[in-house]
């Protein structure tokens, strides 16, 4: 365990040194769902919010920002690893403006998915709207930096897309419409088509360096394990297998797009294996609990059910893989971030 902690410390230090010396990424631009939403849902009429304590209790200043964690998100750590800044602000946050957004901005919305029907479930921002805000941002950036410099920033920026879990867990497996319309394989292909079109649109708008985040072992999220009480709260292997299959399909789609779109550098950042390893061997990473979350009973609480008056919330989130029943702790996010930087994003450091 001590060796693992020392290894993580030196890896972090090494990546930061590389980034400060060689980084050619001037900005991090983020799209997706609650895994990367840094506060856009705060400005929306939705029940899916986290801008209250104990969310953010380990964030800078102990402030709840709308991030679904006790602290920072993977994208925040990635931005820091690239030597840019320690946090990526939400585009809809009125306390920031184009000066801060010029080096990193988040368009993500908690609860959304590739499928427009997924965003309708909790009245959050659909993926197409995230793209519309990005187009608005492009114009603001050109007004701030001038066309030539802004276009250079947009072309050299690293674009991160983290999305898809809600399409399955909050839509396909819960509501009848899509499951009646598609087999699980058909729905995967439907989502891949949307993903491919989204990446192509970003490419046509000038993006060249992009990362698509694969699905996690979603059957091991505490909420899903709680529903699997008949099998003693074990991970739901059906959901994990769907995630693995989808990630393989993403890999194939990425290979095709890299051939079809001249000059694009598109990679898959896959959190599946590293998160599953944390779930199966938590002690190796310095965790004590992986089956339930820190917040509340750790079985089902999320968003408003995870509030500051819940008497069961843990005192030390660093002992837990998961913060609430659906989202990782800051410590987990940091481990995932440096894993994907080392294994997927390092090519963008030069």
Automatic annotation (TrEMBL):
Signal sequence region: 1-23
Keyword Signal tagged: yes
GO MF annotations, alphabetized: hydrolase activity, acting on ester bonds
Domain of life (superkingdom): Eukaryota
Family matches, as InterPro entries: GDSL, GDSL_lipolytic_enzyme, SGNH_hydro_sf, SGNH_plant_lipase-like
Alphabetical keyword list: Signal
Family named by the database record: Belongs to the 'GDSL' lipolytic enzyme family.
The protein's name in its UniProt record: GDSL esterase/lipase
Species of the source: Quercus lobata (Valley oak)
Organism ancestry: Eukaryota, Viridiplantae, Streptophyta, Embryophyta, Tracheophyta
